[in-house]
Amino acid sequence: MRIEELxxxxxxIGISGHIRxxxxxxxxxxxxxxxxxxxxxxxxxxxxxxxxSEVFGCIKDIDRxxxxxxxxxxxxxxxxxxxxxxxxxxxxxxxxxxELFDTAATKINIDHHISNxxxxxxxxxxxxxxxxxxxxYSLLDEEKLDADVALAIYIGIIHDTGVFQYxxxxxxTMMTASKLMAYGFDFPAIIEKTFYEKTYxxxxxxGRAMLESILFMDGKCIVSGIEKKTLxxxxxxxxxxxxxxxxxxxxxxxxxAIFMYQTGVLEYKVxxxxxxKVDVAAIAMFFGGGGHVRAAGCTMNGTFYDVxxxxxxxxxxxxxxxx
Length: 323
Hints:
alpha/beta; Diaminopimelate Epimerase, Chain A, domain 1; 5-stranded parallel sheet
């Protein structure tokens, strides 16, 4: 499959990804945006995402992302898109962009999450891919790539593979990364700036989450959470919590890590990580979320302890099954 064939007859193309976009969502969406603008300069290509973190400012034209819009008003003034691409998610997590996707003449869904069954007229879903960014690379014509597109794809890959340390990293992933690195961008600086570097506030939140974490289930599970009032105290947002759940999962003896932050009254965004004995994707799907076997998430209602208790039932059941 080549993306040119899918959009060649379209005059207008829209692109969006999931709410609270992570590195893979931003990288894959921006790579597609830059590529289509380069190959089809005569077409109207627009991208819609929530405001990306400042660390992704190295991606060309990232300031062209439309972050403040109303779908109904946009459709009234500009009309429906000929083609709309949902990147790194199913349509139910597109947020405000869902209406733009639903009204498009042709809907394309590109994703690598095993929980996504496809929501488009054309679905390119490959759970074997390390990231949606790696999948995007396979959809583009290598001869038409440039350093800007390659950089966006590379950023997406390193964020969803934990800089090639997660189990979703395959030989194909490494081969793709080597081809991207050949475009000559400063990949060590990109890794440090977008993945490892933290602000002082992020360090404080990480420290607080680790200090207040709870080890339970005979040391096989760890949980921590951040309340909205804490985020407000530090003048932080949800993006400042990146990496906490992965750090929790590095605790010796832990098989499953839970991190949650409050998004509303009795509402939490939950991130789950596993070392392999727990299929967190199955647990997240049970609660209306999704993801991968070792990394998944969902939104849950109740108190902090309600959420922990409900998740614990599923985690404990799986641990007993796997011994």
